[in-house]
Amino acid sequence: MKYAPFVCLIALSLTASPRPRASAQTPGMTKGVSVEMAQTKTAAAYPAADNADAWIVAVTADGHLFFGAKSVTPEQLFDEMKATPRNRDAKLYVKADARSTFSSLKSALGPARSVQFEEIVLLTSQSTPAPAGGIVSPQGIGVRLMPQRKEGKIEVRLLSHGHESALTVNGKSVAWSELESTLKNLVRSPNQVVELECDDTILVSELIRVMDEARKTGAAAALPIFHSL
Fold it and tell me: Which of the residues in the chain have pLDDT under 70?
């Protein structure tokens, strides 16, 4: 393996939540493999994801990786990224199926970090339909891959608990229904970062749900290299 194991960082609460349903593939984004992306309310538009030279990695529900339309292993993904020229300011767009696990997502994020991506965009489904006769630009959530300073950092941990998941925020158990209000009480400035940590079996839909709640408060989301749970 040519890259460091990748893990995300969040403080988890021990309350259960129903697993959110994913929505259908959005308009546009015809390149590569179609996946069922999670729906969000706070995603930003990333029209460049539809460019012919956009770097897009897909993670299917069963954990397979694709670089564009090419099926790859994590090691091959690293090699493809190393061998493919890119604009220094270009972004990496990750289309992860909402039903895939964090373990599968790490297989894409590890190589990305190893080729010096400090931030990636997790593409999501639109929460509003495309206008008549038009196509909505791809949307997503920017996610930092680098560890953040401890000061002002909010840690969210997401752990599997039987058939349900549990959350803690800064070490305290929080119900899913209380997550938004809890984060609002903790976020003091737009420079604050919510770092997520989760175990390998957590669904991408749940991970993105936490990011969506964090963005409602104006905070940024981060999945730094950390440790396995």
Answer: 1-32, 127-134, 148-151, 162, 225-229
Phi, psi for residue 205 in degrees, rounded to 5 = -60, -40
Can you list the positions of beta strands (E) in 84-132?
92-96, 119-124
Residue linked to tokens 């949307």: 139
Please, which residues bridge with residue 156 across strands?
169, 196
* pLDDT on residue 142: 94
Q: 80 Cβ partners below 8 Å, 6+ apart?
A: 67, 70, 72
Q: Which of 51, 42, 107, 49 is nearest to 77 (CA)?
A: 107
How far is 110 from 4, CA to CA, in rounded Å? Answer: 6
Return d(Cα 112, Cα 82) in angstroms, integer.
10
Segments forming the whole domain that contains residue 107 = 44-222
Asked if residue 188 lies in contact with residue 154, where contact means CB atoms within 8 angstroms, the answer is no
* Structural domain contains residue 181: yes
CB 208 within 8 A of CB 40: yes
User: Model pTM?
Assistant: 0.81
Question: Residue 3: inside a domain, yes or no?
Answer: no
10-44 pLDDT per residue, tens: 333 333 344 444 433 333 444 568 899 999 999 99
- At 37 the three-state DSSP class reads coil
Domains identified in the chain, total number: 1
